[in-house]
Design brief:
Layout: E1 2-7, E2 10-15, H1 23-34, E3 41-45, E4 48-49, E5 67-72, H2 80-88, H3 95-144, H4 150-162, H5 167-192, H6 205-230
Parallel strand pairs: 1-5
Antiparallel strand pairs: 1-2, 3-4, 3-5
Helix pairs in contact: 1-3, 3-5, 3-6, 5-6
Amino acid sequence: MSILVKWGRERLHFALPPPDAKLAVLRKQIADYTQLPPDAFKLVHAGAVMKDDNAPISAYNITPSSTIQLIGGDTSAPTPSSSAAARGKAEPRTEEGALAQIRGELDAVRRTLVPDVDGFIAALSASSTSSATPSSSSASSAPASTPSRGKPKAKSGSKAQQQPAPSTPNEALVREHARLSELLLQALLRLDAVGLAGTGGDGWGEARAERKGAVREVQSVLDKLDGAWRARS
């Protein structure tokens, strides 16, 4: 479960802390990721500024899929240039920040790409079934048309002319497969790019284990997509 934090043009996903966790916990996660000092920005939810960092997040009615607006200390949203600069150096400084980044990325894949992949596979299966049906019906109708001489050629010719028509949905499936594959690959690259301190030693063991599991899960979705695509014929 995650929440969405809007920061100018940025859309950041963070793991939702327990309901009794203080707002300061969430503020620290955001500060670690954005590289902003914790006291340099305001958090706005449902049109109200969340001021008391010692209050539990449940007091602000923050739930899964909530959207929070991050506003700079001067109450102005970051400019595109400052946003891009922050993105370029948005490497987590603590293990909690790394965990939030990993969980947010995985949650986004689960909420958006996994349903799209399942829908694509269902459409792929339906397309294969519908394309197989005309061929079987035409095969069964062929013997019945053999007694007549002139008409069978006209029927087979008309069917031959209608065969190229199903290419349009196939092209749509090709584009959708390419889109989903690209988005899943991008998610894998973002997970791989999460900076982890002490990667060569024992530092941040929980974050390294969680990233490994997240990469494995996203890769399994990609394998499922490619497997269904290869088996379509």
